[in-house]
């Protein structure tokens, strides 16, 4: 076996803090029934999120729009790649009705990356936001968007729909982009966050960073500084977990204590709020993060 293949096949044993009990019960089944009946997808299921049981049991989910197939092939992500169909024009309406049926006061909507579409799917995000606003006027909407290949016109389509939060994940440090996020660009992602922060002060900006891919301390610190310089308000830090053997392997498991220390470092840099822990993902406890951020802004 080649040295490269040995490196790719290496497995770092999971530590005890990554073992958790799976919640279950009537609420979990209710959420699953609504999603299935509405013919919707969730990133919870498609990306193999470790928090799916907890979130469904709490009556919430993160919706995935524009299909199940991504036009990119990031080496950390479990979402399938391949040919995509045209977006379903009825999906925004069905999603808004599902939000109403679930009784959500805060909802997170994300998508696969659709580089095949003229606007990268920005109009689908905007339509979904508007349908939720009409169906559920009191519900706050957070969108987790792709980079739209740096198209500022596409980004402003989403901004004009006025979500409460625009989230775009930086994912990893600059050096690792070629191996972890081929097709994406570190500086491009920073420019997107900066454009949102400059365009509308009422919209909170948010980003997320995975740890455990081989990044150094200095690289993490620089990424935090870059995100703050771009005007990022809210930050999530979580452990990268290899979803399948074909994905990039975990280099190390970060301890809960180190995640706590990184939260302190990020807050000291001026982030309004930070969620940091092994199981933290982009939409984990999103409503609480947003609420605390709003309180921080008014102090």
Short description:
With 299 residues, this protein is an alpha/beta fold. It is built from 12 helices and 8 strands.
Plain-language structure description:
There is one protein chain. This protein has helices at residues 3-9, 26-37, 43-46, 52-57, 91-102, 122-135, 152-160, 177-180, 186-199, 217-229, 256-268, 286-298; strands spanning 41-42, 62-65, 106-111, 140-144, 165-167, 204-211, 234-239, 273-276. With 299 residues, the chain is an alpha/beta fold. It has a single domain, classed as TIM Barrel. The protein has an 8-stranded mixed β-sheet, sandwiched between helices. Strand 4 (140-144), helix 7 (152-160) and strand 5 (165-167) form a beta-alpha-beta unit. Helix 5 (91-102) crosses helix 6 (122-135) and helix 7 (152-160) crosses helix 9. The chain is globular. Mean pLDDT is 89; it is low at 1-8.
Helices, strands, pairings?
Layout: H1 3-9, H2 26-37, E1 41-42, H3 43-46, H4 52-57, E2 62-65, H5 91-102, E3 106-111, H6 122-135, E4 140-144, H7 152-160, E5 165-167, H8 177-180, H9 186-199, E6 204-211, H10 217-229, E7 234-239, H11 256-268, E8 273-276, H12 286-298
Parallel strand pairs: 2-3, 3-4, 4-5, 5-6, 6-7, 7-8
Antiparallel strand pairs: 1-2
Helix pairs in contact: 5-6, 6-7, 7-9
Keyword list:
299 residues; TIM Barrel; 8-stranded mixed β-sheet; alpha/beta; 12 helices
Our count of helices gives: 12
CATH class: Alpha Beta
CATH H-tier superfamily: Aldolase class I
Number of strands: 8
Order of helices and strands: HHEHHEHEHEHEHHEHEHEH
Strand adjacency order, main sheet = 1-2-3-4-5-6-7-8
Strand-residue fraction? 5-15%
Q: Describe the global form.
A: globular
Helix/strand-derived class? alpha/beta
Q: Main beta sheet: strand number and arrangement?
A: 8 strands, mixed
The Rg value, from CA coordinates, equals 18 Å
The proportion of residues forming helix, as a percent range, comes to 40-55%
Residue ranges: pLDDT <50 for 5 or more in a row?
Answer: 1-8
CATH topology, by name, is TIM Barrel
